[in-house]
Amino acid sequence: MSIIRSLKQLLIVCLLSLPVLGHAQANDEQAQSLLTQLAESSYGQKGKIAGEIARSGDERARGWLEAFSAGKLARIEPSKGDAEGSGKFVIVLSNRGRNWKVQDALTGDDLGEISRRDLDSIRVNNSLRSEIDGILSVIDLTVNDADKRLAAARGLRGNVDEAMAKKLTELMASEEDADVKATLNEALAIYKVEEQGDLSAVKTLSGSLNSEARAALNSATYSDDPALKQAARDALASIETKLKWNRAAETLYFGLSLGSVLVLAAIGLAITFGVMGVINMAHGELIMLGAYTTWGMQQMLPGQPGLALILSIPAGFLVSALAGVAIERSVIQFLKGRPLETLLATFGISLVLQQLVRTVISPLNRTVVTPDWMSGSIMVNEALSLTLNRLYIIGFALVVFVGLMLIMRKTRLGLEVRAVTQNRAMARSMGIKATKVDIMTFALGSGVAGLAGVALSQITNVGPNLGQNYIIDSFMVVVFGGVGNLWGTLVAGLSLGTINQLLEPWAGAVLAKILVLVFIILFIQKRPRGLFPQKGRAAEG
Amino acid sequence: MKIKKQITAGLSALALTLTVSVSAPVAAADEGPIKVGILHSLSGTMAISESTLKDTMLMLIKEQNENGGLLGRKLEPVVVDPASNWPLFAEKARELLAKDKVDVIFGNWTSVSRKSVLPVVEELNGLLFYPVQYEGEESSENVFYTGAAPNQQAIPAVNYLMNQVGVKRWVLAGTDYVYPRTTNKILEAYLKDHGVADEDIMVNYTPFGHSNWQSIVSDIKTFGSQGKKTAVVSTINGDANVPFYRELANQGIKAEDIPVVAFSVGEQELSGIDTGPLVGHLAAWNYFMSVDTDANYDFIDKWVAYTGKEDAVTNDPMEAHYIGFNMWKEAVKKAGTTDVDAVKDAIIGVSVPNLTGGYATMMPNHHITKPVLIGEIQDNGQFSVVWQTPSTVAGDAWSDYLPGSKDLISDWRKPLHCGNYNVVTKSCGGKSEVAAE
User: Fold this and answer.
1) What pLDDT score was predicted for residue A7?
2) Cα dist. B108→A396, B7, B50, B143, B145 in Å?
């Protein structure tokens, strides 16, 4: 380790003395020999050679290092390939399938497709990758873009060594951006606490929520110097109190996001089961159809996952709604008032739909791409970041909820639905076409299940089993919230999600699930009609 | 001889059940095709993994038939669908052995399905080739384990992390069932043997198909920020992996910070995810599709041609079936018959080429020798090998790190002929498995 470390130092010293790569004349022979060394040496040596490449002054060096780090630098096998191509270094542009698209690493010429058999990838591993990241981020500290400098400075925390420390101190003096400066200061302080046991640096770190800073302070609590030990402990204690609030906020966020998923999955059921009283075991498969619609959309619009996702919101609704109508017309309408038969028949339908997807599409999970604007997270502070895909889903769940609420309360359809479910005979005698309302209601509930599928495709597997995983939870939420009440579904979903996430850290995921189930059973014993029971005569029916 | 052959041919044309002499029906059975039972789920939750193995077997059988069959007879696949239903596995195995009278069975994926089939195969004296990595602690006279035992996958992977990466803190995360629980028990004992303190090990179990990983990943993040290099050893099964990796990426945990080494994630599982954010996470297997050997490239070409899909992937259990099928074939050739007892004796010591440029040998404990490869995930859903054992490792049926099994050995050769011989008490446990507490 120490050899690698000192090599790294050496390399960084040399690098820092060269602020920008490559004014020098390109030298293909030298490049070829360096790349050959890179290809043929062991993992331990490769870092050193990567450094030499960076220092060679070749302006293509950055491209090579990036390709190497991504595992895309390869050599045409010397013994194989065509006579002129053999031994050539190439940058792989596309590495899917059996033939790879490549480009000459030295000249940049497009070499077309080459069989994978004839290519030797130059291997890279995690520690090399972070070494190269270090090399590249030191270079990035001198660029004009402040955001890039900040990212580079962030990456340096915990990776600073003696030689770098000196250079960083110089860079810090000339740094204008306050954020970058503070981050560099922190990086230096971490180094000082870890390597030198510097007491004043502990103060710099005392408010930091960065995990590297905490690690450094943690190691300082084992030091022999009592003053340093005490200071580190105090600093850690002050960080701990700050962290506690962050953790509470984080748990709440996790709970809400799990809850919103539950709400989405259950709210369609709240309509078909809660309002219409149909026990639809195929509800999960309607969710699955929505997810597969998203996949289908992305297949039809390659390269535009975001647009496809937005378009699949109406498409998923339509597909699931149509499937719902088909189920209602072909099976459920004949089983009106026979809940046990409905349950068994729809369970059968769910198995049929699953196997249909397995046979027609594939038993394997499908890849649904997450668009860029939905991946990653928003950093509130160093210890608290909110994952974006979950944030979108919370928002989406609320929008769907409000939309449904408006339909049920403000539209003629909603009025008719409520009328039919409260007193079918009376509604019919008032001229409402009960059959049509049945179809519309079932279509609405199924369509919302499709919307849930579109959202779920972003956080879980899109496969034939998708629906099964959510059907039990959905029934739980609807029953807990009070059958026939949309508000109940919302409150039940969010609170079950939060309870689950509160329990999970100390009970474990398996026990947390069991505890939630036990809780619901006990609750239903006490209040059989759930959180928000329906009142009046409708409740008796 | 000639006359007898004509007679038997004539008889078999009439009816197979005619019992003129004791030898006649046996000889008659030898004239028909050799039946190969394939016991993999084609529907239900396990279809995702098992249906490709059925296709692999069909491809191997078709190829063998094109090359003239075996012992001059054709091979005939008998495919049944146990539908991911564990008791149904036992029923279907009985159907294959008693009704279809197959000569050998290739099948099963989950340990629980294997445990369900085990008594049937032993009772009816069948042959079962089991192609998936498993928790060990079992050795049956009638089962050949062509997947990895824990010492051929989990232990070398932990060694790699400990010695090459310098990991000091360990998260053992798994799905809540027998394979992860046994494997983690072995790993915990192994880590403690190597001086890892209790507080540096975090064990976590999740239900099947778990999809909400937020708080667990956040816990792992906290656990890993204590100043010591941390790694996650994952025995998380099947579908639950995708949301797990997605959550890791979303919470900004990179492989450079906290690497995850998985024992159940292969090329096929990765084909369902966008692997960009996973680059650098690890898997330990005995085969990767990216292995740079001609045997492997030929196998891939055949597989692509057979499935007709340019993007079809190969994986470790497929290689295990490839090896198992070839071993069985060689053993049948050696024995000159498909008789179960003869094949069972003949197969021990048989060596066939594997796809990674070496040879696999059937050991007396019915496990095989395999190289152990550690690969890092690439952005194209493939693995790049970063480390491998210098030579092949022989599978160990009974773990050396569990108190209940460390004195047991398995040797199905005569005179020992025992699956769980205790070297201390010098006695044979008798049954195919003992409770490993």
Assistant:
1) 52
2) 42, 40, 8, 11, 11
